[in-house]
Design goal:
The protein is built from no helices and five strands. With about 80 residues, it is an all-beta fold.
Length: about 80
């Protein structure tokens, strides 16, 4: 079982991408590994962000995300 790095409500951004939007963590997802058959509960997170006023969701691996110090502001770049 992996360690959870974030909690719901944390603000994150994809590592190494300056153009990536600020996203808010919604929840951790349960995914089944097709090769091993094991269930991963603490690795993938569902995030929400806004693009031109439209709500978008993204599923990402927690190791690809970095926590932001500045919080809030969906419409701030």
């Amino acid at each position: 079982m992996a360690i959870r790095k974030f909690k719901p409500g944390d603000w994150v951004k994809i590592k190494g991408s300056d153009s990536a939007p600020k996203m808010e963590i919604i929840k951790y997802l349960t995914k089944k590994d097709p090769l091993m058959g094991s269930v991963n509960k603490d690795i993938y997170v569902e995030c929400v962000y806004y693009n031109n006023g439209k709500r978008c969701t993204k599923t990402a691996h927690q190791d690809r995300l970095v926590k932001l110090r500045e919080v809030g502001g969906f419409y701030k770049p």
